[in-house]
Predict the structure.
Amino acid sequence: MLPLEYGRSEDRDIIVRDRFDGFRREFLRTLVNPEVIEEHRQSALGQHSERLERLLIYFRQRPLEQRYAVRAIEPFRRYQVVRLSGRRGVPPRLVDDAIYTSANDARHGLFLRCIRDLLET
Amino acid sequence: MAQIKIFGYADKISVKPGDTIQFHVSADGTSTAEAHLVRLIHGDEHPHGPGFIEEEIDCAANGTWQVEKQFTQVGAFLEVADPDRKLALDGSITLCAFIWPTWPDVGHRQCLLGRWDNDRNHGYGLGINPSGRLEFWVGCGNEVDYLQAELPLQKQAWYFVAATFDARSGRATLYQEGVVSRYNSLLSKVAPVEYRSHVSEMFRFRQNNLPDTPFLVAGSRDWHALRGHFVSQLYCGKIDRCGVFDRPLDHEELDAIRSGGQPPLDGMVAYWDTTKGYTDRGIGDLVVDIGPNRLDAEGYNRPVRAQTGYNWNGRNDCFRLAPHQYGGIEFHADAMIDSNWNATKTLELPETLRSGAYAMRVRGGDGDGEGLAEEYIVFFVRSRMPTARIALLFSTATYLAYANERFATDGQIVQPMAGQPPTISEVDIEIYENPEFGAGCYDTHADGAGVCYTSYRRPMVNMRPKYRIAAFDLPWNFPADLSILAWLEHKGYDYDVLTDEDVHLEGVAAMAPYACILNSTHPEYHSERMLDAHEDYIAGGGRFICMGANSFCCNVAFRDDEPWIMECRKTGGHWIAWAARPGEYYLATTGQMGGIWTGFQRWGQKLVGNTFAGEGFAHSQPYRRMPDSYDPALAWITEGIEGEIIGDFGLGNGGAAGIEIDCYKLGFGTPPNTKLIASSGGHPDNYIAHDEEGAHAHQGFSGTHNYILRADMVYFEAPNNGAVFATGSIAFGSALPINGFENNVSQLLSNVVNAFVRPGPLPGSNRPRKSTAGLERVAS
């Protein structure tokens, strides 16, 4: 992170937020393992292990434009994963063509995308 | 071929057989629609339940309707009635106002006040230009001359601004001074911010006024080939006292107004004293002109009154104490409280219509539409002469509060709160893209302020059957409440329906005919009159089943002559979607403080034995029977139920106890004779205790750590053979349809309803009968 990267930002809170985010992501990456992925696949909603819960809380707290959502094409039959715009009035956009046959499958697909974002950036 | 979209609303939400109701429909992509009256029976399409159930009803309006695209004027503004064109000033002029802009850098022009035609460039105006600077302009049709201030306006800072124009010399001046005090603005005086700007320029011509241009505050007239005249250049922010003079006021005169002095009478054409008209019971939409011409202004889309003004000094928190400090009128460019569409069809309801939840189903084109091509315009039919012993009370105030909420896409807190990503449908995206649908009281305006007015005179896409709330992927409020109606149908009970509107307008008289009233899954919002009516009904011998949770929490207000509009101010506690600003906690509609009823020592527990413990949206839990349920005197409640567990199933996240949950608490006024029949617990940590349960947040507020997070199923006897049974759970109603309505939740509710409708003392009661003089009941 270059010190002057934020020079044009008026809101210094963003600098702190992003630094905190960096530390947090570094730690959260250490929590990702096959057991966590499988736990989420089996139960997308509900009481989770602390390891999984920490990851989920982080994903749900991302800035709006970095969050994903499930789009119900046909409730209880067909779902997709979309990404929120974070801009009022601008609709979410599709992230890929994958169709899920249940909301929980879509939530898991969304979770895998969050995990990928966490590990790759 | 264009996609077919159909949206509509009715002018009334509660009607009786024989009444006339109007339907207002707008259509894209089609000029015809197939309409059919339906009675709604079940609204949750969850595959583990009975699915969507409707019953088609014959009526004169069924058939093909001619439909058209209709336009909606969004944005709040004031319009001045000026039939004698006193404000069509074509010579010297002064415009002045105290302003508190909330979004000066929005990037398009905002008109503060003027008689300006934005389409034809005629007239004059004072506003904020796209670079966020104060600007004065005059137009003669061919050309416009502008004068802008030297620096952009600060957001949420009070200014006194003025423009003067001397028609003889052609000199135009702008006067901009900050009137920032210790209390009234975002920044204090320690911030080295420059507010002042004074500029002057010679204009090449004077304004030319068209005869029919209205004088507007917070907008200007515009025109579109399809929709005709409308208002654009909408302003976001507050305006306090403002005026128009037919001469250029000098600097000293403007200084005097800025300092709180009376505006000069010499040359005054109009001066709107925004502090006039307050009473102990609130204020309306009329803004009084104290000038010689009495050119009063009328609010459109309900500009927000009872807001602090430029001279608010922090000592008083309500307009009732210092109305002269509450001159702020707040405008939002996306405010909308009435679509004002032309009526598409008028229907005189059949006299034979039974009481129930109804909708006019409107399908675009040839009638096989679905998705956006299908609309259900919901309304409720009461009984003209109640004969049923049971009433189902629909929480229309709560429906209004949540109307068209967009918090799944705009709410930062929603995913952490919901414990899941949103599940967004096509119609969610439609309303997100189009501000014409208006927002609900869980939303903020685009300028950041909370939405405090909501109305049913616009399409309400979430007061429909089949709808699932995006944030939680559940039927929410109305569609969930249909599961209770479907249960009454399945069990063959004779019942009528009521709405919150009926209870608000008629008080306990609306409830009194019924021996037993069940309310909804989420009876959260109540006016004072509604709350009083409930208390009087129960104390007078009524038997009340509180079917849901988060019950009787929030305080709202309606005007008697416009019951379709509800005011809600969010304040108190931390469980609010937005927070009313300091000094703006009081309802302009009634003068009462807004927020939660807890702030008035009227906890829901005082009424029904339990109220809000907390909420969560991971899986729901079952109830476990508590010792009171084994008391022989109360055995009738659980008769026919085997074992300890009740409701380990449901369409609401798999259990009868969950989503939002209410608990018993003697310290909040639960009647001391209340019995605890069953209770849940061990909810996931996604459930967080409401801050009423602890003044200070700390670790351990969540479900697996905190026994307070539970749904309590309570029962108590009230005076005069009255009684209350409360489920303490939003998910309870959604458990009823499981297994074809044959389950232990259904059994338990049947036991209670059967006992409650039976005349005479309650089962197991050993209390003497008392007089029922306090409440004259038809069903006794």
Remarks:
- Chain B touches chain A through 36 residues (CB under 8 Å).
- Residues 5-69+357-381 of chain B form one domain.
- The CA atoms of residues 622 and 648 of chain B lie 4 Å apart.
